[in-house]
Write the structure tokens for this entry.
Amino acid sequence: MTQKFNCPNCGAPIEYAGEQETVTCSFCNSQVRAPAEILQEVKTKKLTSQAKVWLIVFLLIILVPTCIGFGGTILGILGGLLGTLVGILAPFMGQ
């Protein structure tokens, strides 16, 4: 996301894309450091983007398989209990 600020030397508008901390003014050709607020905003956006990636990785690699495994465990326990109950009650149902 491109942000704009004015050159402190000549006042011309400068577009800052966030690649580096300094930008060259196209009017006076001076090296200008982007304002601290803009640098902080760009840094925050990059960290937020990285956090989203790590959250997706966590969900897909750790949480989803764990939930699937836990669900399978619960179904296995319920199936075992049902089988035991049927085994106990079966002799009484046949008469």
In short: The radius of gyration is 31 Å. The first helix runs from residue 36 to 93. The beta strands are 3-6, 13-16, 22-24, 31-33.
